[in-house]
Amino acid sequence: MNKITKSLLIMLVASLCFISFSCQQTESNELFVYGNWTSTTSVSYSIGLFGITMKDSSGNKTYSGSNLTIIPYSATAGMIFIKLTSALKTNGVTYTELASESSDIGNWVGFLYKDLTSISLSIKKASKSSGKTSMSTLNEAISEFSIDNGYFSEFDYCYRSL
């Protein structure tokens, strides 16, 4: 084989590999998850590239976190994990102001979303009675916060908001 033919063959194989990988369909639904969501009970979720903020129906920030990690399970469901940066206490003082009072700050929490469309989703922060509230590492949070472990029973049905 001469050098020109060999070079053309290598370029053809490289091009086919590039096309194959760049055109590959994925079940990733991350782009649809990002945005502002408001539930039928006025709980809101703001999901951005770097974190998530959850507010109650009165507009009080209840949870906020960074290091957003999304793990899609399918085209319409997945988990969102954040490293918690603030949480609302029942008296309205945030843990970011009194960080020493919360062992959850700096730890990972999980949210499960399902039934995702371009305009709606169902979402819930991991919680159960006698359950853990956060985990110290992302891998521990991924392992602990699951439906199989009983963390998700009720969901907030949300519509995309502006």
Shape: globular
Chain-averaged pLDDT: 79
Number of helical stretches of at least 4 residues: 3
Number of strands: 8
Secondary structural class: alpha+beta
Radius of gyration: 21 Å
- Pick out the low-confidence regions: 11-27
Notable characteristics:
single chain; 162 residues; alpha+beta; eight-stranded antiparallel β-barrel; 3 helices; 19% helix
Describe the structure.
This protein has 162 residues and is α+β, with helices and mostly antiparallel strands. Helices cover 19% and strands 34% of the residues. It has three helices and eight strands, in the order H-H-E-E-E-E-E-E-E-H-E. It has helices spanning 3-22, 30-33, 138-144, and strands at residues 35-39, 44-47, 51-55, 61-72, 78-87, 108-114, 120-125, 156-161. An eight-stranded antiparallel beta barrel has the order 1-2-3-4-5-6-7-8. A hairpin with a 5-residue loop joins strand 6 (108-114) and strand 7. The longest helix is centred in the N-terminal third of the chain and has 20 residues, at 3-22. The chain is globular and about 80 Å long.
List the topology elements.
Blueprint lengths: L2 H20 L7 H4 L1 E5 L4 E4 L3 E5 L5 E12 L5 E10 L20 E7 L5 E6 L12 H7 L11 E6 L1
Antiparallel strand pairs: 1-2, 1-8, 2-3, 3-4, 4-5, 5-6, 6-7, 7-8
Short précis:
The protein has three helices and eight strands. It is of the alpha+beta class and 162 residues long.
